Amino acid sequence: MDTFISEFILPYINQNDMVITGLFFIALGFLLFAVMRKVRKALLLKVQVTETKWDDILLASFGKPTTIVLLLLPAYYGFSKYILTPEGLELYRETELNEVFFVIVAAWFLSALVQNVMEFYGRKFIHGTARGSKRDFTARFLGLLDLISVYVIWFVAFLVILKLYSISLTPLLAGAGIAGIAIALAAQDMLGNFFGSAMIYVDRPFKIGDRVKIGEHVGDIMDIGNRSTRIKTLDNELMTIPNSTVSSSIITNYALPDVKIKVRLTFYVSPNSDIEKVRRILLEVATQAADNFDFILDDPVPEVFLLDIEEYRLKYMVTFYSNRYDRKWESRDYINSEVLHRFRAERVELPIPQRKIYVRNKVLPGVAIGTGTYDSMGIEDENDYYGGHDGMND
């Protein structure tokens, strides 16, 4: 580099003022940076129309680092040769900055190349071989592998830089044990999220697009990241849940093993109602819903059960299957509305909570204690005295 500069550049500039010469090289770096940006954009447009993809990968990997190097090298040369004082230059040479610079550039080149190769061939592999949930798992696994590869490259570069400065790793590793405990305590949430993400990658409890219940939160999976999982709730709100919370929560996936779900609806009627008529109405409404809507299945057939006989009501349950977990509320609304219409049309009584009221040791006008009659209290019927009821006697 020194020979090239001394033969082709220095004869054409004034070297009497060292500072001006140094500034010239710095300005030359900015000029090369601007030119390289234009060239890079033109090459990107050209390689996009070629059949081979390696030119795209190489340009995407080396284009930006090369542009930065062309900016820094002339500036680096001008600053070190013409602006630094002799004392500063000696210190600069002793610090091995040349080697450090090229180690960083090499790590940058290599990490960019690995990322672009993983992105292109990983995407090709995912769309070419994987299907369904395997595709989502493969994409997340390759993303994690890409991240680990980049970290390893930069860690090796860091070790090389330490070697250049003759720094022994033994004291660092000894101190790292103590520092690691402190860092682990301070960053336990971050580490928990990282390992939670790894468990999600391995266990695959859900994929993007699934409707899930995580703890008390229900929504559709929008994104699975290395730190958190994002779901869109039923209220159309984006909720971010740390992966440590996800991995330790009970997860219900409504999309697995398939999208078919069982819907249960509960109805209460008066105990005086005709139980067979109630059963018939509920079954007819559920069957009619299966005929009217394609998301309500007629196989398995809807079923009606009399579950409990309670103090003042009978408890029925209607069960049916739907092939759309995202239409659950619509099916509930339709069946509830139709059942209410049929109950009113066929005079099926709904239960009303009843309470018996007893009056003890209280003198009422014109009534002796313990000897009063309903007529003497102005009450025409026993039911009026007890508050009235339509259900079963206690």
Automatic annotation (TrEMBL):
It is a multi-pass membrane protein. It comes from Methanimicrococcus blatticola. Keywords: Cell membrane, Membrane, Transmembrane, Transmembrane helix. The chain crosses the membrane at residues 18-36, 57-80, 100-121, 141-162, 168-187. Residues 189-254 form the Mechanosensitive ion channel MscS domain. The keyword Transferase does not apply. It comes from the Archaea. Pfam families: MS_channel_1st, MS_channel_2nd, MS_channel_3rd. InterPro entries: LSM_dom_sf, MS_channel_1st, MS_channel_C, MscS_archaea/bacteria_type, MscS_beta-dom_sf, MscS_channel_2nd, MscS_channel_C_sf, MscS_channel_TM-2. Residues 263-349 form the Mechanosensitive ion channel MscS C-terminal domain. This is MscS family membrane protein. GO terms for cellular component: plasma membrane. Its main location: membrane. Belongs to the MscS (TC 1.A.23) family. It is found in: Cell membrane. The keyword Iron-sulfur does not apply. One of its GO terms (molecular function) is mechanosensitive monoatomic ion channel activity. Residues 148-188 form the Mechanosensitive ion channel transmembrane helices 2/3 domain.
